[in-house]
Structure formats: C-alpha cells, structure tokens
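In the design runs reported in the main text, the only information available to the sequence generator was the tokenized backbone. The following block is the verbatim input for one such run; it is reproduced so that readers can re-run the procedure and compare outputs position by position.
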C-alpha cells in the first residue's frame, strides 16, 4: 500500500474523533508552550541586554551599599541595611585618591525618601520620577547625553546650586509648548532651575529612562538631608586593558576611606555591566530550568494520554484492522498507520504550543521593551521532541494493532 494512502487513512481516522484528538493534543500543547514561551521571552530579553541592563558607561564599575537586586528578601536585605552608609565625605576622599588612576568618578544618590513628582505652572508629572543628586560625570557614567542647555559643572556641585537636568518625559509633560531652559520647577517642594535636558533614553524592562530629574549632589543632600543616605560611586577605567587594575585600585581606595583593616571583609558591593549580565543570566537559567521541569511533567502526562487514546482506538477499530488484513494489508502497513496517527496528534499539539509560546513570550518581551524574536532552535527541538513522544508512546498501541490475528479480529464485536 502506498505511503500516501496510509497517510490519508491515518489523518481520516483522526478526523472522525475531532474532540478526542484535540483534547489529547492539549497536553502536548501545554508542555511545549511552557518551554517555548519562557525561552522566547528569555531570548528576547538577552537580545536587548546591552541596552536594557548595561546602564553603566564603558569600562565602568560601581560601588554601593546594597547589591544590584537590593539584597533580596527581607531576611537577606537586613545584613546590608546594617552596613555603614557611604558618606559624601568618604566618596569625595575616594575621588581624590583615584585622581590619575581613573578617568571619571561619578557620585550619585537617588530617591532616598520615596517617589518624586515635578510641578511647573500648575502642570504635574507622574509621582514616580527618578530623582537624585550627582556630579558633573553623570552623563558618562550612565550613558546619557545633553539635548539642550548644558551639563552640571564642578562649580554647581561645589556651590550646591539649585539647578536641574530633566528627561524628555518631563519636558513633554511640563513644557509642551515652551523652552524649559531657565524655567523653575518644583520637586518635593524644592525649587530648581532647569539648565539642561537629557536626550531621549527610551524604555527598558518596563521603566522609562526619560522620567528623571538630576540636581547637584550637594544641593540634593542639603535639601533632603544626608542622614541614612548612601552614595553610589561609579568609576571609569582609562581603557579595557587596565580595567581590572583600576578596579583593584578602586577597591583598595574605598577600603582606605572606609577605615577597613586588612582582615576585614568589604562592607560595600562592587558591580559592573558584566556582573549585571551574569546576574541576569543566572536568573534566566533558573527560570528555564523551572520551565523544563514543568514541561517535562506535562509532556510525560501527554505521552501517557496519547498511548491511552491509541489503545482505545485499537480496541474500537479491531474489526476494521481484521478486514484490512484479510484483503492484503501487511503488518507494517497497520503499524505505520497507527504510528502516523500518534505522531500527527503529537506534532499538531507541538505546533500549537510553539505558536502560543512564541506569541506569549514575545508579548511579555515587548511589554518590557525588548525586540520580537523567533527561537528557531527551541522550535526545532520542540518538534523533534514531539515526534519522539508520538513514536515512543504510540509504538506499543501500533504494534498491538499490527499484531492482531485477522481471524480473531474479524470475530470481534
């Protein structure tokens, strides 16, 4: 019997019981969806990691009181809260010690007293602005650029002038039809004169880089106090070749200004773009491992379901098998037909799982401002696994059907 004829018969048999076939496919669809959805989202996020996570400038490393994830759950965060703050005096002394060894030392502190809202002439921004103080090196350290006006200067920081740099979201909200330069805005009931605007930064991972107000660090601390405020210190090495050497010098310098003894551990965190990428990679691997476990269980259950349905199908079609054998159908023809049915159910479920997984994963990725991707490698693996499930769990029912005695099969009622 030609293979095309066997294929038509197999697909025709599936069409007779559409609901049963669809419910059997559902288990495969769920298992494949869980893997493809997660891996699509992770792949999309990895593709945008340079712009999404790499918020530090080139050859930059940063010291802070807390790790990048804030310290984790409350129990883990407590140990970091007990650390001493990095004070402005310590940060400025560190800056002096690093003269000649580093190109840039940026000092900054953000939103230590809750969310911020900017107000101008009766117009208001959203109450969740990024608001903080910094010095003249903020642009280099955080990959920003000036669109109009000027940057903060060392004189602005030294004299604690009430000046501000604002992002494009604030420009659009407060100054839709006028030049913001020279205008006075209020942030947390303090007045600042706008001297510059940042170029558009865009969104990354659900947050906007354009909803930002930065003022001189000394002005920020004078307005809102330095109690329980820790300064973040970002340092730029002269080149990638001396990056590690500069980081070692930076760690030594900060230990000196913190008064740490040789046997004492660092009471501060140090991280860079590479460390942030490594953190993301570890989280992504954990998520992927979890999705593999879930999908493995779902696929195993779906495979058992396929075997069960195929055994039921063999029982229901025993007489049909006997008739086909009596008119010349060979054992391999019956075996092939039932294997095709099993694989077709499995592959149809796999294709549906891939489609829904790609749509779901990219939906999440696009919500976090990552680009659309199609995980061809994972889709291919998914189809191969589905084929294997169809063959593996469908072989016994197919072999049972092919091994039926035609005389006994014809007697079956």
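Verbatim output:
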């Amino acid at each position: 019997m030609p293979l095309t004829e066997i294929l038509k018969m197999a697909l025709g048999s599936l069409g007779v019981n559409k609901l049963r076939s669809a419910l059997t496919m559902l288990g495969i669809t769920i298992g494949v969806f869980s893997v493809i959805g997660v891996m699509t989202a992770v792949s999309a996020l990895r593709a945008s990691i340079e712009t999404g996570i790499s918020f530090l400038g080139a050859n930059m490393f940063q010291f802070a009181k807390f790790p990048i994830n804030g310290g984790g759950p409350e129990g883990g965060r407590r140990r970091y809260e007990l650390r001493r703050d990095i004070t402005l005096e310590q940060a400025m002394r560190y800056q002096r010690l690093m003269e000649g060894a580093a190109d840039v030392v940026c000092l900054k502190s953000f939103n230590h007293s809750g969310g911020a809202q900017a107000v101008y002439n009766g117009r208001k921004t959203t109450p969740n602005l990024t608001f903080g103080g910094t010095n003249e090196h903020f642009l280099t350290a955080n990959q920003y650029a000036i669109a109009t006006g000027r940057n903060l200067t060392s004189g602005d920081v030294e004299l604690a002038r009430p000046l501000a740099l604002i992002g494009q979201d604030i420009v659009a909200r407060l100054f839709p039809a006028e030049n913001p330069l020279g205008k006075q805005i209020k942030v947390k009931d303090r007045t600042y004169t706008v001297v510059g605007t940042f170029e558009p930064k865009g969104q990354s991972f659900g947050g906007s880089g354009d909803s930002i107000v930065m003022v001189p660090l000394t002005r920020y601390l004078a307005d809102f106090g330095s109690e329980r405020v820790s300064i973040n210190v970002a340092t730029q090495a002269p080149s990638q070749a001396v990056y590690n050497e500069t980081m070692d010098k930076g760690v030594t310098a900060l230990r000196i200004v913190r008064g740490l003894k040789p046997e004492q551990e660092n009471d501060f965190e140090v991280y860079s773009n590479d460390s942030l990428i490594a953190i993301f990679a570890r989280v992504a691997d954990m998520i992927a491992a979890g999705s593999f476990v879930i999908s493995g269980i779902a696929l195993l259950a779906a495979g058992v379901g396929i075997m069960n349905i195929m055994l039921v199908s063999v029982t229901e079609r025993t007489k049909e098998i006997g008739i086909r054998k009596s008119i010349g159908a060979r054992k391999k023809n019956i075996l092939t037909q039932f294997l095709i049915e099993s694989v077709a159910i499995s592959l149809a479920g796999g294709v549906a799982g891939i489609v829904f997984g790609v749509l779901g994963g990219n939906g999440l990725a696009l919500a976090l401002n990552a680009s659309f991707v199609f995980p061809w490698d994972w889709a291919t693996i998914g189809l191969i696994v589905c084929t294997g499930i169809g063959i593996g769990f469908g072989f016994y029912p197919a072999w049972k059907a092919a091994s039926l005695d035609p005389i006994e099969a014809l007697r079956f009622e």
